[in-house]
Amino acid sequence: MDLNRLEQDSEFRWRIPARTPMNVPGILYGDREQILQMDDKVYEQLRNVTMLPGLAGPVYAMPDAHWGYGFPIGGVAAFDADTGGVVSAGGVGFDISCGVRMLHTGMQSAAIEKVGPALADCLYADIPVGVGSEGSISLDDASMHAMLEGGARWAVEQGYGTADDLDRTEERGCIAGADPGAVSERAKKRQRREMGTLGSGNHYLEVQRVAEIFDPAIAAVYGLAIDDLVISIHCGSRGLGHQIGTDYLREMLLAAGEFGITLPDRELACAPIHSELGQRYMGAMRAGMNCALANRQIITHLTRGVFLAFFPQAQLSMLYDVSHNICKVETHVVDGVARKLHVHRKGATRAFGPGNADLDESLRDAGQPVLIGGSMGTGSYVLAGTSESEQRALSSACHGAGRAMSRRKARKEYGGRQVVDELARRGIVVRSPSLRGIAEEAPLAYKDVNRVVDNAALAGLARKVARLQPVICIKG
Amino acid sequence: MHSRNWEHFEHDADIGLRAMAASRERLFEAMAEALTALITDPGTVRPIESVPIQCEAPDDALLLTDWLNALVYEMATRRMLFGDWRVSIENHALDAIAKGEPVDRARHRPVVEVKGATYTALSVSQDSKGTWHGQCIVDV
After folding, report:
1. Do the bridges between strand A462-475 and strand A429-431 make them parallel or antiparallel, or are there none, so unpaired?
2. Is A169 helix (H, G, I), strand (E, B) or coil?
3. For residues A210 and A222, is the Cβ–Cβ distance under 8 A?
């Protein structure tokens, strides 16, 4: 990115000044080198978002920002319904409520030294993954409706997990205001056999070892100690969310003229929050979020089944579950005034600081766990929300490493077998239905997650708590 | 067909499809082939089952995303891959038959699931020589 087009607010904060037709400034977080390495398309896309109506304050790009469609991936924007603010299907994307769930195993890494490959085989066999895979659950109309209204709470009621899981899940496992009637029959049909499936692309289930602790006090609250084994599940609302995105993007695009909205990019298709279409999308999107929460809950249950077969004492308790592709109604202080806003986070993680009333009591003093997925092989992070993040970026932080290389280029640079062998030499067991898919997800195709996280911490978006190293990776 | 009059182009997070052809119909068929090529080698897909697809849109660009999204939907709900397409278009109404077979994970080795076709960098146009060009970024 050309730095000459930016003003530097501080070492880790850069500004696109608000010039017509922008309505608000754009703010990018990252050090000089990271901003330099960002594609110019991030500048263009962030600037496009600033032109939308009813924005409440700047639009933000997280340190892992990269070229998306409509919004940059790593984009955060908040709209006020009462000042003409919009909700954008493009600002949420196809993978509604994609997110990360983390579980403790209650074990240390030595416990799986001898059984690693066998454990990987069983996880790969029991958790449907990749193109063409199907879950064992088939939903009829009534259970589809109940799932879309109930989310992870529905899943727990069906026997997939325990009530304790819900205390550590965003929205306690079920977002209010979901409207299954606003979800098309096509979307429901696409989901019918996809409950409890991981999907493909950058989605995964990993068994990880806690390799480093940065903040012992918060790590203790989260129950993390060096060498502990945890499980990360990264996936979203599957076919249902993809189809909701497809349906509403088209409808919002065609309706934009009627609302008098000029779209700088068709992918920013949106509708006024107060419109019938805006409200209908919110209802459908929330149903999508409940689907994602139910999906991760069912995968949790399947994972527990595998672990219990190997380790009868295993507990697999929840650390946290948080989404990074979603629009949520939250109260934020903007220019000294508390306002109820529709906060879009596309490839950005909510990062509530200490004291936030939405957090479970057990987490309220420490702040929200912010779960950052890295690439296969490079590691992941647990961060904690900070009080400063509220003013810096509406309590938001990065969501992962962000791609440094396109899929096509990665495929040309790396062989899938070569990646699997290299990871095996480093003690990481990979299972996936597609070697080409592994090549496209090669560790070096991603930015350095350490640097992304360092920059997020230095910018005050979140606090570093622990670094995790993969031991087993089940990849879609 | 499998004429390779298409290519995949770079996009940070996802991937772009681009094609050129002598007619709008052949362009849409080439884009469908580029879509399948994200998932598997289109040459490995046998045209055993036929699926009719119809869509209509206000312009050619939207018709292209509607077509690609219809294929994504049929692939997802039928657990199928497509390897042969016959498209006819009148004004902005498309009538097509997509031929393919159920996904065989051992033989097709499917790489990635396509979530949907986006409106970013989307275009359909005809140049001065009459050749049709199209492109679209899909979310994977």
Report:
1. parallel
2. strand
3. no
Where do the domains of chain B lie? 6-139
Residue of A66, A131, A186 lying closest to B73 (CB–CB): A186
Whether the model pTM is above 0.80: yes
**Once rounded to an integer, what is the mean pLDDT over residues B5-25?**
90
* Residue that the structure tokens 């080409």 belong to: A436
The answer to whether residue A141 scores a pLDDT higher than 70 is yes
B contact test, residue of A1, A94, A324 with most B CBs within 10 A: A94
How do residues A51-85 score in pLDDT, each as one tens digit? 999 999 999 999 999 988 899 999 999 999 999 99
Residue of B nearest to A405 (CA): B12
How many Å apart are CA A353 and CA A463, to the nearest integer? Answer: 10
Helix A238-255 and helix B60-78, axial crossing angle in degrees, nearest 10: 160
A26 found inside a domain: yes
Contact check, Cβ <8 Å, A69/B137: yes
CATH number at A216 reads: 3.90.1860.10
Residues 6+ apart with CB under 8 A from A282: A87, A177, A179, A273, A327
Interval A2-20 mean pLDDT: 97
Residue A180 lies in a domain: yes
Count how many Cα atoms sit within 13 Å of the Cα of residue A258 in the half-sphere of its side chain: 11
Report d(CA A196, CA A95) in Å as an integer: 15
Residues 6+ apart with CB under 8 A from A392: A13, A29, A459, A460, A461
Contact A71, A93 (CB under 8 A): yes
Which amino acid appears at position B138 of this protein? V
- Tally the domains of chain A: 1
Q: Which of A373, A368, A386, A379 is nearest to A457 (CA)?
A: A386
Tell me which residue range forms the domain holding A48: 3-404+446-475
Tokens 């045209």 belong to which residue? B47
Q: ipTM value of the model?
A: 0.94
Average of pLDDT values for A232-236?
Answer: 96
- Sign of the Cα torsion A141, A142, A147, A150 reads positive
* CATH code for the structural domain at B6-139: 3.55.10.10
Confidence at residue A357, expressed as pLDDT on a 0 to 100 scale = 92
- Determine the residue among B112, B137, B140 to mutate to test chain A binding: the one whose Cβ has the most chain A Cβ atoms within 10 Å: B112
Shortest CA gap B112–chain A (Å): 6
Residue A406 is nearest to which of B15, B65, B111, comparing CB atoms? B15
* A342 catalytically annotated: no
CA distance A450 to B39: 31
Helix (H/G/I), strand (E/B), else coil: A276:
helix
Instruction: Decide if A43 touches B, using CB distance below 8 A.
Output: no
Q: Quick one: pLDDT at residue B3?
A: 59
Contact B113 A200 (CB under 8 A): yes
Which residues of B fall within a CB distance of 8 Å from A200? 110-113, 140
Considering only CA atoms, give the Rg of chain B.
Answer: 14
- Neighbour tally for B130: CB within 10 Å: 8
